[in-house]
């Protein structure tokens, strides 16, 4: 209930009555951790485990303390020991699901979440964790059912409201999803991440001023989180403010590793690659194409499977001589590695496509990272045309769509000109 001082008094009294009480030490560890004293929290959690080695509460506290020290693998191992000693402890299984998700093991996360709800389906926490496990697998129907049960069990918990909002947005119901995220923010106005995703929802609705306000509040609430800086950069870039966007993107990159408390090193490296790609897009807007290609190459050295980096490198080759084979190779790799999305694939690989901004960002769903869920079901249409003298004109039309686990992009391009002298006419169709 947020009454931490009163809780601390009760914990002190419990310790006086029974100095060997492991639960008291475990709870004190959690309170200390929320106050930012990570080393002390780890010492208290280890003491709790020493007092009662079979206590699931002590081992769960130890997992949180280790996570606070950026040791996600160690946190997961603590909970694995807890479920081995107490296989019927639902909250331990739910905690294990969260940590598997932090490491990117979505199948294992879902299995642990299902086990948690089987053991105790009447806990809001287990239903919420199950919802996020389903959501990470883009199973939005089952995710929404789990969130609905969690909300019925605990209507004051903001987390299932956030999850429900993300699931609705992924299903193409942007307004309804945004309203749910607003409820989550209302229930916990101090949560930076909730405000970042509310700002992202406003951005998707083209309500840029409201989005900017949420990003600024998120920055103030958690100065170490790169998320609001990253999304604000995308907003500024789409508003034709590339210099401001560049500064925000650099701030996001500087803060990238501070999310090690939530995500494994592998996933953080993927995030860094995604942020480098976004930085390269900004360099493109600033007409610094060479730096754009460098950032794409840097991103690929970190994460060779990053489809956005392959696409950026292909775009940076457009219009240059003697690199057509490399351009086609990068475009092919981008298509092979890309997840389901609404990014239009231009037949002629035009370099100016603001639609690519919408797909920019970390592409892997995991604990506290839900960027891909904003790629929602629907259709996108892009039409371009140009006309000039000497019978010169060109046009392209592209239709892209996404429905659950199916995505497509259909496009055609035509250009022709009579040329500047006899027999220099030209025509091309793709």
Describe this protein's structure.
The chain has 430 residues and is of the alpha+beta class. The chain is built from 20 helices and four strands. It has a four-stranded antiparallel beta sheet with strand order 1-2-3-4, with no helix packed on it. α1 packs antiparallel against α2 and α14 packs antiparallel against α15. The chain is elongated and about 100 Å long. About 2% of the residues have low confidence.
In short:
This protein has 430 residues and is an alpha+beta fold. Helices cover 62% and strands 9% of the residues. Mean pLDDT is 84; it is low at 350-359.
User: Number of DSSP helices?
Assistant: 20
Percentage of helical residues? 55-70%
Question: Mean pLDDT, as a whole number?
Answer: 84
* Principal-axes shape call: elongated
Number of strands: 4
The low-confidence parts are: 350-359
Overall radius of gyration: 25 Å
| Strand content range | 5-15%
The secondary-structure class comes to alpha+beta
Largest sheet: 4 strands, antiparallel
Through-space gap between termini: 62 Å
H-E string: HHHHHHHHHHHHHHHHHHHHEEEE
Spatial strand order of the main sheet? 1-2-3-4
């Amino acid at each position: 209930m947020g009454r931490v001082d009163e809780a601390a008094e009760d914990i002190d009294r419990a310790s006086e009555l029974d100095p060997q009480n492991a639960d008291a030490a475990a709870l004190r560890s959690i309170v200390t951790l929320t106050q930012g004293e990570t080393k002390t929290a780890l010492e208290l959690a280890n003491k709790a485990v020493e007092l009662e080695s079979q206590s699931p509460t002590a081992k769960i506290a130890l997992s949180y303390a280790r996570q606070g020290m950026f040791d996600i693998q160690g946190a997961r191992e603590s909970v694995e020991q807890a479920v081995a000693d107490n296989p019927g402890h639902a909250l331990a299984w739910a905690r294990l699901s969260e940590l598997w998700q932090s490491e990117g093991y979505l199948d294992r996360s879902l299995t642990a979440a299902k086990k948690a709800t089987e053991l105790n389906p009447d806990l809001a926490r287990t239903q919420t964790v199950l919802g996020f496990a389903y959501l990470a697998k883009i199973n939005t129907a089952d995710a929404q059912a789990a969130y609905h049960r969690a909300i019925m069990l605990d209507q004051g918990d903001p987390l299932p409201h956030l999850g429900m909002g993300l699931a609705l947005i992924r299903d193409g119901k942007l307004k309804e999803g945004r309203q749910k995220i607003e409820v989550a923010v209302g229930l916990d106005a101090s949560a930076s991440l909730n405000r970042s995703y509310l700002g992202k929802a406003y951005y998707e609705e083209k309500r840029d001023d409201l989005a900017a306000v949420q990003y600024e509040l998120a920055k103030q609430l958690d100065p170490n989180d790169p998320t609001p800086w990253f999304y604000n950069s995308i907003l500024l870039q789409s508003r034709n403010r590339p210099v401001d966007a560049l500064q925000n993107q650099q701030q996001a990159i500087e803060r990238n590793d501070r999310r090690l408390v939530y995500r494994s090193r592998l996933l953080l490296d993927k995030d860094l690659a995604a942020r480098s790609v976004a930085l390269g897009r900004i360099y493109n807007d600033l007409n610094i194409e060479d730096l754009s290609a460098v950032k794409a190459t840097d991103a690929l050295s970190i994460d060779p499977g990053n489809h956005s980096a392959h696409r950026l490198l292909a775009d940076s080759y457009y219009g240059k001589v003697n690199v057509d084979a490399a351009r086609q190779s990068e475009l092919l790799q981008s298509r092979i590695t890309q997840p389901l999305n609404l990014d239009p694939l231009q037949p002629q690989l035009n370099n100016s496509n603001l639609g690519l901004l919408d797909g920019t960002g970390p592409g892997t769903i995991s604990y506290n990272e839900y960027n891909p869920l904003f790629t929602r079901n629907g259709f996108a249409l892009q039409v371009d045309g140009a006309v000039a003298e000497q019978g010169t004109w060109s046009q392209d039309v592209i239709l892209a769509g996404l429905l659950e686990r199916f995505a497509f992009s259909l496009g055609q391009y035509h250009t022709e000109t009579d040329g500047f002298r006899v027999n220099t006419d030209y025509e091309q169709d793709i």
